[in-house]
Amino acid sequence: MAQLPYGVALMQENIFKINDKEYILPGSRACQGCGLSLAYRYILKALRENTIVAIPPSCLCVLHGLYPTTSVTVPAINATFAGNAASASGIVAALNALNKTEITVLALTGDGGTYDMGIQSLSGAAERNTNFIFACYDNEAYMNTGTQRSGATPMGALTTTTPILTKREKKKDMLKIMEAHDLPYLATVSPAYPADLYDKFVKAKRIKGTRYIHIDIPCPPGWAYPAKDTVRVGKLAVETGIFVLCEIEDGKFRFTGRSETLAKKGKRLPVVQYVERQGRFRKMSIEQLNQLQSWVDSRWNEYMKRAE
Q1: How, if at all, do strands 185-189 and 211-216 pair?
Q2: How many angstroms separate the Cα of 104 from the Cα of each of 95, 201, 206, 209?
Q3: CATH of the domain at 269
Q4: Tens digits of per-residue pLDDT, 248-286?
Q5: Is residue 1 part of a domain?
Q6: pLDDT tens-digit profile of 217-247?
Q7: pTM
Q8: Is 130 helix (H, G, I), strand (E, B) or coil?
């Protein structure tokens, strides 16, 4: 019997097996159409009760709420902006001392706390192979403090710190940076494909050592698109190859979900179909658009060779 493609098999296997318990209560301070809210819902469904979350100053703090109220039912510890991985490492050490190794520690961090201020503590934890999941929810700017550019902001995007000229630098390849630490498991996920996201966090929970998961998080106010289009924009990121669904386990790369289908028999959409839906790219030049398309094509071809 022929084996079903990963994405099809995953959907058939998980569509009725996703944990139906909710860990985020109705109502939060997150923005309407927040991609993080969608992703976090399925992350917690995958990791379940025995989970402690470390969070730096970020949109996630807003979602969790102000003490003593919260919209989330799992325990969380607020860390410093630059030290979330260090805080998570401390939680792991404390749990080991108490012999409570069944508890999963999740450091859920925005792109500012991952790409920029937090990269030193993350790299240190990864070098030590500390036993926790570090997940970067990437909305491509410092959204919680007013949409300032970060190392994750793509070329051609407008932010409040690039108000006249768009960002000229390319986005850092954080997945490649983290892969250089020789981690046991790395993956990319999108809330637009919740079954793929759920499955990867379930897998990561079972693996020991530092696991790195990168989450594409569409942001209506920061990216300047209607709140109702969050899932559509997330899917366009994958369909164009701007964001690639994949996992790297013990050094072996493979496409997953919709990206696997595109790699085998599909055809990626041109990048312009993604950028034209977002007001943050309204000042993007044709030259920048062509450079972005070239970068996407080059990375895709690199991944295709690795998948072979």
Answers
A1: parallel
A2: 10, 11, 9, 11
A3: 3.40.50.970
A4: 999 999 999 999 999 998 899 999 999 999 999 999 999
A5: no
A6: 999 999 999 999 999 999 999 999 999 999 9
A7: 0.93
A8: coil
